[in-house]
Structures are given as structure tokens and as C-alpha cells.
Amino acid sequence: MIIESKVLAIACSEEDGKRAMLYSYKKSFSGFSAKLNASQAIALSKMEDVISVFESRTMKLHTTRSWDFLGLPIPSYTNNRSARFSLHLPSYGDHDVVVAIFDSGVWPESKSFEESEGIGRIPCNWKGKCVKGYRFNPASACNRKLIGARYYLKGFEAQYGALNTTADNPEFRSPRDFLGHGTHTASTAVGAVVHNVGFPTSSSLAKGTARGGAPWARLAVYKVCWGKDYEGKCTDADVMAAFDDALHDGVDVISASFGERPPLIPLFESASAIGSFHAMQRGVSVVFSAGNDGSHPSLVQNVSPWSICVAASTMDRTFPTTIFILNHFSIMGESLITRNIINVKLADAINYFNDGICERENIRKGGKSGKGKVVVCFSTIGQVSIATAQEAVKAINASALIFGAPPTTELPDLDLIPTVRIDIHQATQIRNFLAELPRLPMVEIGVARSVIGKSVAPTVAYFSSRGPSSILPDILKPDISAPGVNILAAWPPETAPTVRPSGKINEEEEEEEEGVKWNFQSGTSMSCPHVSGVVALIKSVHPNWSPAAIRSAIITTATKIDSSGNTILAGGSMKASDPFDIGAGQVNPIMAINPGLIYDITTNDYITFLCNIGYTDQQISNLILNPSPHFCCRQSTATIANFNYPSITLANLRSTTTIRRIVRNVSLNKNAIYFLRVLPPYGVRVQVWPRVLFFSCYRQQISYYITITPLRKSRGRYGFGEIQWFNRFHTVTSPLVVRLAT
Q1: Quick check: is 423 catalytic?
Q2: Which end of the chain has fewer CB atoms surrounding its CB within 10 Å, N or C?
């Protein structure tokens, strides 16, 4: 009633006030969302006990083999916690860890969400529920695996109008998933073990066993993202309502594959940052995707220091496809084509597009039809994207596209029109060959094959958003990388795997594509639930660890080496990756479960950090769960650099600086000794004291000090190194990032 009275006080009438209210947040924190005009928002912000008022924004979703590639064996459940801790057997995970997926809903009939043999009763402390809605009956949809399902629509409809449920956009007013994104991410994180899957059928591509990272964990779905122009739109008002419910329900992990493109807003105005701070205070880890804005610097999203931000990388599964130019030669590319393309001719784009630029607006006026042709396009002619080229080639009624692009910038995907990706060298070879012929040659394209272990992996996905953080450069983001390219996971069979702008699938492939239950998707949206699954595994073995401790375990055990023994490459550039590409490196689930040492952070540490970066008392109160009415920043001599983050970043080093880090012994060996190894960034000297850490008991904490001295003049250039503590059993690595400002 107190919350509602605020709206009534600024509304023209009681009826207008009630109509303006969207949500009242009162389960986990106090607040509300409402439709207000500018003057009403200003009046509300001036009320005595209102901490802050901010506009609800809209975020977008970031769109089998992967767990084997990460070294995680197919599990067999055991109640023996010691066995799970030591991992002498492939037995891990816990029925009583609950993973929340904030996304576009779930397809509950998928085998990924069936009860596994031996699964116990729903935890007695679980307060969540399955909410009834259109084509979603809790009695049949939910079980001991899928234990919660809610949906939030008020914010979306306030922003975009009534939900479109027409035939072209058959969204479900319920937790049921239409977009497919939520089903896919949930399956990746905690999907049950399902044998004999593949795309589009079990006898086709990527056939094998599908599973989530924590297949024994429980699943709770919070549908906050809705289809709008075939994108997933997620409003702040709906996201905050989901956080309010999820923290009350009793989830252990929250996975959220969405974000807002830069310019980023301050943390105290971000629903994701506020909600994840509340979660951290409740001991709940929150995992976000880094974004899909590509290889330019400072585009990384979801940069709050209390959450985990995940970049995307490839794995060692490829889909080679042979292009046969009949009676001449063949070229190997990559695709996800599942049936042969025959009796067609090969043509250069110059025959159909002005200057050979593969865009719809460049189609030659009165030009020929491309029917029965395979058209060769270049990303470098007109700087066209593969999606633009596909739309253009489909518009001239061509049978397929061969797309030439720099290596690692284009990866096989489900396409608007059958498409084979080749590199610039191969495409140039084809183009020069066509220029010498008097007539178009016949060409055949074979079906793609699944090949494992023959390619160097991982590499950073070209689309994965890079650091440094544009609003908090002293905190390294992204934190970690995980597989996010061509991930096969569960899919709603009523949703086509390749959705067209019209809402329809390619008519020639309609029969093949409908009814697909497993689908390929790429994006940091797919890498995020991989790490969420790892967080659930760690939580199952270490139920009392804080979100910071779990993040530390993931960061300090990551690997920066690919399958060839070299540094992981950054896709799109072919340079060696650095922490702005992949954070600490590729996630290593087995090592993260037993990291040896952790860097822990308390709520008070986060608050001190916010005080030190200049946030006001009012702004910090907006982040804190149930803040004191008399909250104020305490005087502190600590510097930002002393914030006990497992990665170390100095974004403005002018002179010699000494910082402190605190590590805690969490290994089974209570009498542990760790030795130091330092790789200094270029242009600085790094000294660490002490050089040996002696632990005599479990959970003992030891401080060490790092002195960093500039050795040259520079302004704005970053250098990368690392600090490593190691012994026979553990290697604990912290990325060291230094930007000189001398």
C-alpha cells in the first residue's frame, strides 16, 4: 500500500494511478515500475523516501560437442560429496542446485527437461511455482527437473503495445517459448543427458549425446524476453520483476543472455546491475553474456564487478563442405547444408549486381534471374555482411551462395539460403577462373560432414564483444570465454530453426526444417549458459562458496592455450588473443571445481569499491538490497586497485604503485606451499612479495603485495601479463593488465 500510494499521489486520479502501475517489487526488495510522464517521474524522485527513479530500457537477446571439448565427462550421479569434490569418478552435480534462466521461456516437452532416473523430490526450501498460461499447463509442463516457470509481460506491453499472437508471430502468453532462444540456453546449461540427437535428425549433422553442463541440476525459467520483429526484447521492468521473484523463490544461479549495446548506462541505473547486486547479496551467482558487437574495443556489455561476463569461442568441430566445379577442380568450405545441391551453374556476382556488390539495392535493373545458379560474393566488395549477401542472392532467386571472407570472420550457420563459407584466397581463385571461361560451368555442392578434433581450437568468435569496459576500465571484462559457435541444443519443434524477416522459413526447405527438436545457435548467448552450468557444478560441490569465490575459481583456472599448444587466436584478426578478447581464457570446468586458492569479495568490499570510484551515497543506495536510510560512504584509504578481484587491472599507471591481493586456501591439502611465477606486461617491472605462500590450514588467508613500476613513457597503450601461484597440484593464474599514462 505504501508503494501504491506513491503513484496515487502523483496521478490525476485514483483510477489513473492504478492503471499506471505495472509491477510492485516487494518479495526480495522494495520498488515498483509504472507508466509515468516526465513531470510525474520528476515529482516522484523528489519524494522524501524515494531513493531513485530511472527509465525502463529494453535489452536484446544475444544470439553436444561443447562439454566434451571442455573436458567434462558424461556424469553419473553420486550422493558422495567427497567423490564429487575429488572427481576420481565422472560423478558430479547436485539435484538441489537450482539454475534460473532469464530468457524467452521454455519448451517443456523437450527431452532436455525430462526427469532423470533417480532424481529426488523438489527441495523443501523451494518457494517458486509454475504459472499457468496459454498452452502451458503446470501439471504436465513441470516436473522434478523443471520446477519453476513464470512469465513477465507488463513492461514489454507498456513499451511495445499488446503482444502479437498472430500466425506470423505466434508468441505464447505463458512461459512457453516461441523464439527458441530460452529453450536452447536452458538445455545448454542444465539439460538432461539425451542420446542420439543431431540436426536436423539424429542421423545428420553433429549426431551424438546432448547434455547440459549440470544435467542433474533443477531448472527454473523466467520468461522476460518476447518476440518483436523476430528479436528478443527484454524490458528493465520485466527483468526487475524476475529478479524479485527468483531471489524469493530460492534459486542458486541466474543465467541471463541479454544486454544493452554501448554507450552503457551507469550501474545504479541498470536493471541488470541492480538485480545482480541484490543476487550477490543473497549468495546467488549471476552470469551474463558479453554481447555480439564484434572485434572493436570497448563494446563489451554487462560489466558489473559482482557478476560474470562471458565471451564466445569456437570448438574443434567443423562442418567441411566440398564445392565440385565439374570437370575442373574442387574447393573445401564450411556450411550446415544437409542435402546435395546439383544441376546448377556457378556465377560471379558481377552478373547480377552492380559492381559485384551483393546487396538488394545493387541488383541490376532488368537483370537476369539467378534461378539455377550458385552465386559467388565477397565480403570485401562493398563491405557487405553475409546476411546482406544472402538476402540479395535470395532476391534474384539463386539456388545457393558461396561467400568469400577473411579467415575466422564467417563461421557456418543456419542460413536464409544454402551458403558455403570460403576464405578470400579460395574465392579469388574461383572468380579468376570464371573470368576466363566463355560460359558458366556446372557446379555441385555436397552435404556438410561433422569432423571433430582436426581443427585448431578454441579461437575467439569474431562476433564476441571485446574489452576494456567503457565505464569501469579498472575491472577486466569479459571475465572468461566459453564455446558459443554452432552449439547444438534443444529447440521448439514448432519454431523454424532459420526464421526469416517475414516470419517464414525458406519454402524449399520448409519440409526439412519444420519439426526440428535440436538446433544450432551461435552467440555469446550460447557461451553464457556454458559458464552458468559450470557455476552450478561448483555450487554443488561447494554450496557455501560466495559468488565471488565461484567466479575466482573459474577465472584463475582458465586456459589461454589452444589445441596446438599455442596462444588462443582472436577470430577476425588472427592475432594472439589478449584479456580484452577472452578475459582470463577458456573456461576449464574440472580445474575450476578444485582451484586451490580463491580471491573472495564481500558486499562491504563492493560498496567500498563503489565509494572509491566516486559513486554518491544516493547512487550506491540504489544498488543495495534494503539499504539503510542513513547509508554513507566511510572514509577509506584503500585504492581501486586493491579491490580483491582475481584479475588485476591498472588502467592509468603514472608512477610506481603497490597493491594488495588476498588469497584463501581451499585445497584438500591444508599444508600447502605455492611458488610465484610472473610474466610482466611490456614496459613495466613487476615485483611481488612474498614470493612463496605457506598455508597451514584450510580456509587460511594470506596477503601478498605487487609493486608495478613504469619503465618507459607511454600514453594509452595497454600491456598484458600474469601473476601465477603454483605447486604440484594447482596453478592459480591472475591476468595482469596495465595501461601506462606516463
Answers
A1: no
A2: N
